[in-house]
Amino acid sequence: MTLFDSYFAEILQKRSQEGTLRTLHSTHNHSADKQATPFIDVSSNDYLNLSCHPLLKQRASEWALKYGAGARSSRLVSGTLIQHQNIEAKIALFKKHEAALLFASGWQANASVIPALCKLSLTQTHAPMLVFSDKLNHASIHHGCAAAGVRQIRFRHNDLSHLESLLKREASKPGLRMIITESVFSMDGDRADILALRKIAHDYQAFLYLDEAHATGVLGENGAGLSQGVADLTMGTFSKALGSMGAYIAGSKLLCDYIINYASGFIYSTAVPPALLGAIDAALDLIPHMHKERHNLHKNADLLRRLLNEADISTGLSTTQIVPVIIGDSEHALSVARGLHQKGFMSIAIRPPTVPTGTARLRLALHSNLTENNITQLAHAIIQLMTEKKS
Ligand SMILES: Cc1ncc(COP(=O)(O)O)c(C=O)c1O
């Protein structure tokens, strides 16, 4: 027993009673582990199945053998390899920005870059940054704002007239302005209107910060995402469609120089290791040419939405490879996920507090290797499980 165990027990018990207790379950990467019971993965973010692509595995192992298992120190000490810089140049080109920087994870990038940017407002205007943030932004963005000590001014999800009214309301306040949103929302699979956001940011002299975690690799020209050089800062991850781990920010050269000097998650954290650099480098080589895979992914998502919607099952405002089946009640969402598991699909129920109260759901994340038959079976399985519950 530790000093706090009785408090932990009390709080966890409450979550358990509410049906929101989080626990860990081991799974297999079924594309990698041929011994495992075959499941169709509609849960992970491996949208293009790159986590097991031979080129990623090969380059990751080659670079580990050539350059070592670890980067040995932070980038500013002696951790910068030429490979870090080459990959950063590749990302800058891919995202049509002047420069880019690597981070160990997307969470770390948002959690440390946002506070660094907020500091700029204090030094330039002696007033806190006014951060206008979409209500459904990812937890790492909220964490970045909390770490900066700023209170977010949150606009209704994807409601740009609400955003504009808040910018107007705050117009007389001192401080720099920043708008933060995702380009594809992780739990809803809908998209932000990037060009409209760009115009609003321009009109109100706000810095546009865009999280492209779920768009990178999957959407836009050559899979480079929805904002190619449009936002002031584009952040994205290698942990989803790009199949491995890590993240980037891209923007002007001066922005990146500033982040090198002021983002604590960049300065005080060990550099990304060679094996990971190898996997990232290989994914960046493959992604621009994966048109067929992207086409199949989006065709599958359209089919799934159509089949579910025809059966009166809502998929919200999804227009991407992320298709939510909004169920509402947490226990019901868990039971549908369990039912799907029994039918051979790996799918997870997402419950509050990850999503707003009353919107527990299956978050179906489609992969490019799924067939039309897989999608039809999935839709029928969901329709059957949802109907069983109603009757
Ligand atoms: C929108 C968004 N941003 C950031 C992250 C964090 O990325 P990572 O998993 O690389 O830490 C996620 C992860 O789920 C995400 O969905």
From TrEMBL:
The enzyme's E.C. designation: 2.3.1.47
Biochemical pathway: Cofactor biosynthesis; biotin biosynthesis
Assigned keywords, A-Z: Biotin biosynthesis, Pyridoxal phosphate, Transferase
Span of domain Aminotransferase class I/classII large: 39-382
GO biological process: biotin biosynthetic process
SUPFAM superfamilies recorded: PLP-dependent transferases
Enzyme type, top EC level: transferase
A Pfam family recorded for this sequence: Aminotran_1_2
Family listed: Belongs to the class-II pyridoxal-phosphate-dependent aminotransferase family. BioF subfamily.
Subunit field text: Homodimer.
Official protein name in the record: 8-amino-7-oxononanoate synthase
Biological source species: Swingsia samuiensis
Phylogenetic lineage: Bacteria, Pseudomonadati, Pseudomonadota, Alphaproteobacteria, Acetobacterales
